[in-house]
Amino acid sequence: MRADARKNREQLLAVAGTAITEQGVDVSLRDIARRADVGLATLLRHFPTREALLDALLRASFDELTAEADALERASEPGDALVLWLRDCVAWTTEYRGVTVLMAAAIDDTESALHASCVSLRAAGARLLARAQSAGAARTDIDGAGLFALVAALAWLGDQPSLAPRAGHLFDLITSAILTREESGHVEAGRRSGGRG
Which residues pair with 138 in a beta bridge? Predict the structure, then answer.
């Protein structure tokens, strides 16, 4: 890739990240191109579809969340690892307004540019959940697909101005319902003492 093309691509991704944070995933591609000071044709050469742009923009975050799940699996107690990862995953999906709708659709659409990244992310959460279930730290009547749906639901709450102030409390209620009573108390104690969970 030529230096000027690489510069345009990086500029488009930077502008797209800001625009989606401000306006949501339905922001106009033409507006992104204008704010990046390039033509729409230039944007479409780099990213032929909205999903291709989102995949390029979000892939690094998907990869970070997947890597975080791997690290937590090795270093944290099963219940704590699950809650810490869920908290970070929900916070990230809330940052990009409307992304959860696309993620939920991409899971079932193998043609989607976001499909592989979303499947990997769901699998990372499912591994943490299965580990917590095996340790007796989480209830067994939820699977990875259900966990992914909860992330989407919690992120949706964070997107709603009238509900966002309740999102943290509702997150705590939901995670305490997933965890066994003993494990839930352990995470709650960690939160009161200043821990992330």
Answer: 179
The CA distance from 11 to 32, in Å, is: 10
Mean residue pLDDT across the chain = 86
Kindly indicate the confidence band of residue 181, based on its pLDDT and cuts at 50, 70 and 90. low
The phi-psi region of residue 136 (left if phi > 0; otherwise alpha if psi is between -120 and 50; otherwise beta) is left
Average pLDDT on 170-180 reads 92
Residue in 134, 144, 115 with CA at minimum distance from that of residue 183:
134
Read off the DSSP letter of residue 96.
Answer: S
Name residues whose C-beta falls within 8 Å of residue 163's C-beta, 6 or more positions apart in sequence. 157
Q: Where do we find the tokens 């990372």?
A: 124
Q: Which amino acid is at 42?
A: T
Give the residue-averaged pLDDT of 130-136. 96
